[in-house]
Design goal:
The protein is an alpha+beta fold. The chain folds into 2 domains: about 160 residues, Four Helix Bundle (Hemerythrin (Met), subunit A) (Up-down Bundle); about 60 residues, Nonspecific Lipid-transfer Protein, Chain A (2-Layer Sandwich). It is about 50% helix and about 10% strand. The strands form 2 sheets. Strands 4-3-5-6 form a 4-stranded mixed β-sheet. Strands 1-2 form a two-stranded antiparallel sheet. The model has no long low-confidence stretch (mean pLDDT about 90).
Length: about 260
């Protein structure tokens, strides 16, 4: 008999909606300050320029509009925990699509403003229980919005890395939801109770098969900060790099997560 599917964490839909809107607002405000030279600069994402990256951030919210325009699925078959593993299939063609968006929208602020207006209208028109035909399977709008926190936090971090001194803020609720979703995705990928992964102040999960501890300090512990965890989970940072830079602490024979990361493509 296959193991029971891990139950997804619940999120406050009102707070998630506000967090997604706030993080996108932080990005929009930052874009207005960038010079043409900065927009043409490189990023850590292969051949993407900063302009390509910003154009792609619009799709984090634009995807909601595309999904609500499709027929509603008959029943829910997926939750937020199904989304990280499905991102690999969605990755194909993203580079070209982002470059095309950047070319089609020379006025990035106007483009992001249009995305923002459509997003607000979609949220006003649809309840959180509305089902969407996502790449991970039919899931509720409320669940899908949690995945938008990952997209926005990750690309905010990409932008901050690409433009030194920009320092786009990370909205607390968005960072918390992003961290928790990726932590839960690890626990779902490697179920068990032998290793405890701590990402204060937002998440603690147990994972990896082996002896389960019941009290006191567990024998295998991994601890890091939220942004380092996000970078590890999304492939922006490798496990050896994080350990070498003392950005993650790991103790115990089952505390090496290198074989489980990244969680998304």
């Amino acid at each position: 008999m296959p193991p029971a599917k891990k139950r997804a964490r619940t999120y406050d839909s009102v707070k998630i909606r506000a967090a997604v809107a706030a993080q996108f607002g932080h990005l929009r405000q930052a874009v207005r300050t960038l010079s043409p030279e900065q927009l043409a600069g490189p990023t850590r994402l292969g051949d993407w320029t900063v302009r390509d990256l910003i154009a792609h951030t619009g799709t984090a919210l634009g995807a909601v509009g595309r999904l609500v325009d499709r027929p509603e699925p008959v029943r829910q078959e997926a939750t937020v925990l199904d989304w990280p593993r499905a991102t690999a299939a969605d990755a194909h063609g993203i580079d070209e699509a982002s470059r095309r968006l950047a070319e089609e929208h020379p006025d990035l602020d106007a483009y992001l403003a249009d995305v923002e207006r459509r997003f607000a209208a979609d949220l006003a028109a649809h309840r959180g229980t509305r089902l969407l035909a996502t790449g991970a399977g039919p899931m509720t709008l409320s669940d899908y919005l949690v995945t938008r926190t990952v997209e926005l936090i990750v690309h905010t971090d990409d932008l901050n890395d690409a433009v030194p001194g920009l320092e786009v803020p990370y909205e607390r609720q968005a960072l918390a939801a992003c961290t928790r979703l990726l932590a839960d995705a690890l626990a779902a990928k490697a179920p068990g109770g032998s290793t405890e992964v701590r990402i204060p102040p937002y998440a603690v999960v147990q994972c990896i098969e082996g002896p389960r501890h019941t009290r006191g300090t567990p024998p295998n512990v991994v601890e890091t900060d939220p942004l380092t965890w996000v970078r590890l989970a999304t492939g922006r940072l490798t496990w050896p790099e994080a350990v070498e830079k003392a950005q993650v602490s790991a103790s115990g024979e089952r505390a090496d997560l290198s074989g489980l990361l990244p969680l998304t493509a």
